[in-house]
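Customer escalation, tier 2.

The customer says the design service returned an amino acid string that "doesn't look like it belongs to this structure." They asked us to rerun it and document both sides in this ticket. The original structure tokens are below, unchanged.
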């Protein structure tokens, strides 16, 4: 698979860049006018997640096809991290929650932060632990 660089702007646009020096640019179909706050790829590079200021997470294929919308957060989603196998996604939000999504089944587990907004989240390399920053 060819290396891909994903970029976004304040208007909710996302581009996939490939080729030598990432000169080949493919726009991803806009699904929201909300600011993109985070872009992350699964470890195998097959999935990409974008998080928005409106609290929606979009799951994309590596080719830029929208696969799923994840809704549940009530405020901006600042961070996202895939599990090593790409089946789960942890998300961090200003609504004081971390959500653990089972992507294919759209099942979520909600964890409330002890103090305020959650700005960052990461899943450990073996997928057993989730860390968060608030």
């Amino acid at each position: 698979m060819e290396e891909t660089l994903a970029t976004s702007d304040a208007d909710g646009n996302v581009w996939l860049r490939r080729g030598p020096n990432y000169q080949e640019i493919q726009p991803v179909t806009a699904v929201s006018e909300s600011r993109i706050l985070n872009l992350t790829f699964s470890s195998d590079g097959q999935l990409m997640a974008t998080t928005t200021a409106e609290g929606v997470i979009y799951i994309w294929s590596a080719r830029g096809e929208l696969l799923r919308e994840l809704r549940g957060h009530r405020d901006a989603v600042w961070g996202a991290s895939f599990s090593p196998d790409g089946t789960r996604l942890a998300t961090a939000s200003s609504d004081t929650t971390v959500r653990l999504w089972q992507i294919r089944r759209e099942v979520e587990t909600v964890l409330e932060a002890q103090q305020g907004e959650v700005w960052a989240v990461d899943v450990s390399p073996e997928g057993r632990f989730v860390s968060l920053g608030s």
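Tier 2 assessment: The sequence is consistent with the input. The longest strand covers residues 36-41. The mean pLDDT is 91. Sent an explanation to the customer and offered a walkthrough call.
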